[in-house]
Amino acid sequence: MAEVLVYVDHVDGAVRKPTLELLTLARRLGEPVAVALGAGAEATAATLGEHGAVRVLTADAPEFADYLVVPKVDALQAAYDSVSPAAVLLPSSGEAKEIAARLAVRIGSGLITDAVDLEAGDEGPVATQSVFAAAYTAKSRVSKGVPVITVKPNSAQVEPSAAAGTVEALQVSFGATATGTKVVSRTPRETTGRPELTEAAIVVSGGRGVNGAENFSVIEALADSLGAAVGASRAAVDAGWYPHSNQVGQTGKSVSPQLYIASGISGAIQHRAGMQTSKTIVAINKDSEAPIFDLVDYGIVGDLFDVVPQLTDEVKAR
Ligand code: FAD
Domain named Electron transfer flavoprotein alpha/beta-subunit N-terminal: which ranges (predicted)? Predict the structure, then answer.
């Protein structure tokens, strides 16, 4: 059976959920071989094995921590050369997309980014993408080389599947450019205790209708009752009510949660571009003609300051 390389996103050995989703999708294409790099790489093996990785190739070196992405590209290319996979899958994080693009150039392959589904095809994997500000769903296939594909978080239900997950050390020799750009400092982002926006299973977003930074506490309360991340429309971000790192849309982040709740958001195409692939969409808007109602599964016409606290109370009561 063909092997499929899966690039592992982990923090000190704790595997992040998008990688487990990738392993589920990879099994549709062949046998997953995981590539884990950096501190704690070996500690990922048990989890990766429980989710179908037949082998885990690991490497740790100071270069991974001290320099930008090129050492990781060198390592992934070493894994690619040793495995000769049928496809290379990476999560659609900012860093992994850069690694994917650089690898695709090096191995002369085509690249598909931000896939929301993957299936095996007669001529190679077929990826589903949401394109042109989510106005179209496209099925794409790489026609040159071994496909390199990045997949958006929440694109698949994680399905555990036991496999060996045996650890093999990956031999990496870093290229001349690996140490070209050094990390000089890191500033940890302020933690809110909420899930990362792009990985969250539930996102509660507020827009111009929230009408002020202080009123975002209403959105946050609902988010916290659901264990959700908080998103914002560009109008709310441009008004300075919420940080740009929480903006959802064409010029913000792209999310694909199980549940997206939009409050006081009209549903402009640029906002849809970042959330239209959500599995279930709920909107709360006092204007029954708001375009957001064209794409929702459940719509509530009403004032968000009445509706959202009631929802929060109801969720908390359960
Ligand atoms: P509005 O369109 O003003 O809608 C506010 C809504 O709140 C209205 O429907 C109103 O009925 C409702 N409302 C008001 N008060 C209440 C209340 N008390 N209770 C319930 N409902 C209420 N936008 C993004 O979001 N993300 C992007 O990434 C993005 N990128 C862009 C890129 C470009 C190049 C351009 C040109 C635009 C971009 N935009 C983006 C902006 C986009 O076009 C819209 O202007 C923006 O999404 C509007 O935000 P909004 O829905 O919060 O505000």
Answer: 4-183
Which residues does the chain have with pLDDT short of 50?
none
144 alpha carbon to ligand 1 midpoint, in Å? Answer: 40
The pocket around ligand 1, CB under 6 angstroms, is made up of 207-209, 233-236, 247-252, 264-266, 268, 270-271, 274, 284-287, 290, 303-305
Which class for 84: exposed (0-12), middle (13-18), buried (19 or more C-beta within 10 A)? exposed
Interhelix angle for 94-107 vs 70-83, to 10°? 50
3-state secondary structure (DSSP) of residue 3: strand
Residue nearest to atom 9 of ligand 1 (CA): 266
Instruction: Tell me whether residue 233 is annotated as binding.
Output: yes
- What is the ipTM for the molecules in this complex? 0.99
Q: What is the pTM of this model?
A: 0.85
